[in-house]
Amino acid sequence: MKRWRALCGVLGLTVVLASPLTASAQGAGRPLSVIGLLDAGERLEWWAAFRQQIRELGYVEGQTVAFEQRFAGGSYERLPTMAQELVRLKVSVIVTSGSAAAEVAKRVTSSVPIVLATGDDPVGAGLVASFARPGGNITGVTSISTGLTGKRLQVLRESFPKLSRLAALWHRDNAASARQVQELQSAARAAKVALQVLGVKSSDEFPAAFSAMTQERAQAVFVISDPFVFNERRRLAELTFEHRLPSMHGPSEYVDAGGLISYAPSYLDLFRRAAIYVDKILKGAKPADLPIEQPITFELVINLKTAKALGVTMPRALLLRANRVIE
After folding, report:
1. Which pLDDT tens digit goes with each residue over 272-304?
2. What is the spatial distance between Cα 192 and Cα 194, in angstroms, rounded to a whole number?
3. Is residue 284 helix, strand or coil?
4. Between the CA of residue 262 and those of 94, 255, 310, what are the distances in Å?
5. Is residue 11 scored above 50 in pLDDT?
6. What is the pLDDT, as a whole number, of residue 24?
7. Residue 117 and residue 45: Cα distance in Å, rounded?
8. What is the CA radius of gyration of the chain?
9. What is the secondary structure of 145-189 as a DSSP string?
């Protein structure tokens, strides 16, 4: 009996000593911060750049940080549920791609920090008070700078000096795209270019939109990017070939898919910069005190293969200015 009691005492002591060690071991392996990723589209390459920058800042996935991603793939109606899920998971910060995702995140939470990785003018969209002092729980970077839409039109006119009739394709469900349409309308009026605006809600409407462009004798198409349109960039390239329409785009991925010209900031760089904001917030900074950054440098990309297929000649001066030429 004494031996049995002694053995029980030893076992009991072993359990007492082992329990804290087990809890400590579990705690050491538990991620300290959870970053929510909210995207109205599914821009995987851009998010890969974000994650890489997080690693370079010293975070280790599964040990000091974890990711909860919610990508809508262009289906805007899914965003509210996805944003609510991230809030229920008590993520440390939500990183958004695109104005639609940012606007939904703002409606869902006023306490969880939100970092913009891309998007329209956040002041004009009512997301923040100002670029210098955002206020509230939102900060980050924007992919839109003053006059960017006009600059794209300028590049398009430089490419085709006789341009007088232009079509614009945009997604009707995106408020940010609607604001860009207004900017383009103003720029086109100033340039005395007739503008035909065509809004679509699904890819099924693309063929009719391009047929309408042909009927109105459009000389080029200005594609206003958003998550839905971005996912359809290869289909759009096929239609521009079919209707022999030179195209102007934002992100260079459109040109990689067969579009003619793109002019935009580097989205990979924007996502890397967003990771720096996340790092600051995880270390205690308040979003309200972090100024929102606008793009400084822009990339001009031209697809010469597409130009040859369309039977158009790109000005040599423009090709020399291009950051990248696809041949």
Report:
1. 999 999 999 999 999 999 999 999 889 999 999
2. 6
3. coil
4. 29, 6, 16
5. no
6. 31
7. 13
8. 25
9. -TTHHHHHHHHHHHH-TT--EEEEEEETT-HHHHHHHHHHHHHHH
Among 6-15, 80-89, 122-131, where is mean pLDDT lowest?
6-15
| Cα–Cα nearest to 225, from 168, 153, 310 | 168
Cα gap 44→57, rounded to integer Å: 20
Distance of CA 7 to the CA centre of its chain: 63
The architecture in CATH of the region 31-144+267-289 reads 3-Layer(aba) Sandwich (3.40)
Amino acid identity at 287:
P
Number of Cβ within 10 Å of residue 210's Cβ equals 22
299, 264 in Cβ contact below 8 A?
Answer: yes
Residue 297, pLDDT score: 84
Residues 99/250, Cβ–Cβ less than 8 Å: no
Q: Give start-end residues of each CATH 3.40.50.2300 domain in the chain.
A: 31-144+267-289, 148-264+299-326
3-state secondary structure of 200: strand
For the sheet containing 247-249, what is the strand order?
A: 194-200, 165-171, 220-223, 247-249, 261-264, 299-303, 324-326
SS3 292: coil
Could you give the angle at which helices 99-108 and 175-191 cross, rounded to 10 degrees? 140
- Check: CB of residue 116 under 8 Å from CB of residue 96: yes
Tokens of residue 250, six digits: 């934002």
Q: Cα-flanking dihedrals φ and ψ of residue 104, to 5°?
A: -65, -45
Write the CATH number of the domain with boundaries 148-264+299-326: 3.40.50.2300
Q: Tell me how far apart the alpha carbons of residues 51 and 55 are, in angstroms, rounded to a whole number.
A: 6
CA–CA separation, 109 and 106 (whole Å): 6
